[in-house]
Design a protein that fits this description.
This protein is an alpha/beta fold and about 240 residues long. About 25% of the residues lie in helices and about 15% in strands. It contains seven helices and nine strands.
Length: about 240
């Protein structure tokens, strides 16, 4: 496979995933060598202005030419914007198959591939019995975080294997608590596929999530799933839902 995933850290970092497999902080280069702890992309040092691109629900499908054309156009526009990081809010693929992940990778301009970090959505996990393995291979661990120029970016998976219902596992909640607690004065940006609060019930145990953030709040929560662009204020944080690509 000749996609960005093989060119970055798959061989040396099998646990960190392929969408954004290189990760550094405080480096002077825009794209530096990978490290082994987060699975998030490289970013410039504090001396550079950081710009983020956020998208969700690409639903990559190699049999859907219209979908692929639209996705390529979006990524070409993002490439022109030249962000430090490209954050994907889940439902990367339509059914979570390896062929769909490959189609997604092929739609990204080569110069942008090392800057993409994603969380899985329900479309990555509910259909395929091998979804857990493919999720870790293509996307990464359940919870990852990286400090990027004064912001802590936290990517968390709330999907449930071959289920539509979403759930914060005990390990994910513990990792989230560690990420927000150790951030100290850094503002935190959380990324999950499902929005929470404000009448949303996609995540069955979201009160446990709120209990963590009651002690250690985040500044911004980026989500997908709803296929609409909407900014709301939820329990001291801004929550931004992304329209589907």
């Amino acid at each position: 496979m000749n996609h960005f995933s093989r060119r970055t850290a798959l061989a040396s970092l099998p646990a960190t995933g392929l969408l954004g497999a290189t990760a550094v902080s405080g480096t002077t280069a825009a794209h530096a060598a990978p490290t082994a702890h987060t699975g998030l992309p490289a970013a410039p040092s504090r001396r550079a202005k950081v710009r983020f691109a956020f998208l969700a629900d690409t639903h990559a499908d190699p049999e859907n030419d219209e979908n692929l054309a639209r996705m390529r156009a979006v990524f070409e526009a993002i490439d022109d914007f030249d962000p430090s990081l490209v954050i994907h809010g889940g439902d990367v693929t339509e059914y979570g198959t390896d062929a769909e992940f490959r189609a997604f990778a092929d739609a990204i301009p080569s110069g942008l591939r090392d800057r993409v970090a994603a969380v899985p959505g329900n479309h990555e996990t509910r259909w395929d019995a091998s979804a857990g393995q493919l999720r870790q291979q293509w996307i990464g661990e359940e919870v990852r975080y990286q400090d990027v120029d004064g912001v802590r970016l936290i990517l968390a998976d709330t999907t449930t294997h071959q289920q539509e219902v979403a759930w914060w596992s005990d390990s994910a909640l513990a990792a989230l608590e560690d990420a927000v607690r150790t951030a100290r004065e850094l503002p935190c940006v959380l990324v999950t596929h499902f929005p929470m609060g404000e009448g949303f019930y996609y995540v069955a145990n979201q009160q446990a999530f709120e209990d963590v953030l009651a002690l250690h709040p985040v500044s911004l929560h980026l989500t997908g799933h709803t296929h609409r662009e909407l900014l709301t204020r939820v329990n001291r944080r801004d929550q931004l839902e992304a329209a589907a690509v």
